[in-house]
């Protein structure tokens, strides 16, 4: 679905992404891991149109989307969430979801004045869809709560809910587990798996929690120093010597040796 070829993104003399190439297959949940500063979020931002690449090419279903702005990619079904949730804190959770779809009738001054019946009907339909999304995510009890009062994990679920208000084809999730307790992280993981299996969503996610990655993702792509270091199943990645040295640490290697010795 997504092919990023030989992507470079330089900031002055700093090469944040230095010739990375990745493929994200349709229907997959692909994990992207690596140490801090590996270029993961920068690569996300290039694919999602937040940043223009210094060089390289990005295609989606064969269409060249290199450098297209986020609002155009949004209408093509490519969405990206951020490590820090961006909710409208003074609005209710339901209202946050209702704002997502574009080209709503109420956005036009003439429609708001002269076609109030159609606008009201559209809002009722959006509210119904929002409630269905909240029920799917098991946070329907928060529908009338101000979004700013939600916990960090609940806000991550709300971000995921936004993608369900439109016809998302592929969703890029940046550290969905950051600052989230284990119970809510499991809820988020369950929602991702259900969206993938029941609704055909394709996901690519950056995450540091290897247990979470191993549960959800296949394949897993490892980045280091702006380049792709390895790709494979989670088990294969965790046994890769280069990955262990660059990211997982010698502690994992020593733990594996201890386990082998004790067998």
From TrEMBL:
Q: Indicate whether Transport appears among the record's keywords.
A: yes
Q: What Pfam families does this protein's entry cite?
A: ABC_tran (PF00005), BCA_ABC_TP_C (PF12399)
Instruction: Give the UniProt entry's GO cellular component terms.
Output: plasma membrane
From which domain of life does this come?
Answer: Bacteria
Keyword list, A-Z: ATP-binding, Hydrolase, Nucleotide-binding, Transport
Recorded GO molecular functions are: ATP binding; ATP hydrolysis activity
Identify the SMART domains for this entry: AAA
Keyword hit for ATP-binding: yes
Where is the ABC transporter domain positioned along the sequence?
2-250
Please name the InterPro entries in this protein's record. Answer: AAA+_ATPase, ABC_AA/LPS_Transport, ABC_transporter-like_ATP-bd, ABC_transporter-like_CS, BCA_ABC_TP_C, P-loop_NTPase
Question: Which EC numbers does the record give?
Answer: 3.6.3.-
The name under which this protein is listed is: Lipopolysaccharide export system ATP-binding protein LptB
Organism from which the protein derives? Actibacterium lipolyticum
Q: Organism classification, top ranks?
A: Bacteria, Pseudomonadati, Pseudomonadota, Alphaproteobacteria, Rhodobacterales
Gene symbol of the encoding locus: lptB_3
């Amino acid at each position: 679905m997504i092919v990023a070829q030989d992507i470079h993104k330089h900031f002055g003399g700093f090469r944040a992404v230095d010739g990375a190439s990745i493929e994200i297959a349709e229907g997959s949940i692909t994990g992207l891991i690596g140490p801090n500063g590996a270029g993961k979020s920068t690569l996300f931002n290039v694919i999602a149109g937040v940043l223009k690449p210094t060089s390289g090419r990005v295609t989606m279903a064969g269409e060249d989307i290199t450098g297209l702005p986020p609002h155009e990619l949004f209408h093509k079904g490519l969405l990206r969430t951020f490590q820090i949730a961006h909710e409208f804190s003074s609005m209710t959770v339901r209202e946050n979801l209702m704002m997502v779809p574009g080209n709503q009738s109420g956005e036009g001054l003439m429609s708001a004045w002269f076609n109030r019946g159609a606008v009201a009907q559209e809002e009722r339909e959006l509210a119904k869809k929002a409630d269905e999304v909240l029920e799917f995510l098991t946070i329907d009890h928060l529908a009338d709560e101000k979004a700013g009062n939600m916990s960090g994990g609940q806000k991550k679920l709300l971000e995921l809910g936004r993608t369900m208000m439109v016809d998302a084809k592929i969703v890029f999730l940046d550290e969905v587990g950051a600052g989230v307790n284990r119970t809510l992280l499991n809820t988020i993981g369950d929602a991702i798996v259900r969206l993938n299996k029941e609704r055909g969503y394709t996901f690519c996610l950056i995450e540091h929690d290897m247990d979470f990655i191993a549960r959800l993702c296949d394949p897993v792509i490892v980045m280091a120093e702006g380049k792709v270091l390895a790709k494979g199943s989670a088990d294969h990645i965790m046994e890769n010597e280069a990955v262990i040295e660059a990211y997982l640490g010698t502690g994992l290697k020593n733990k594996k040796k201890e386990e082998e010795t004790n067998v």
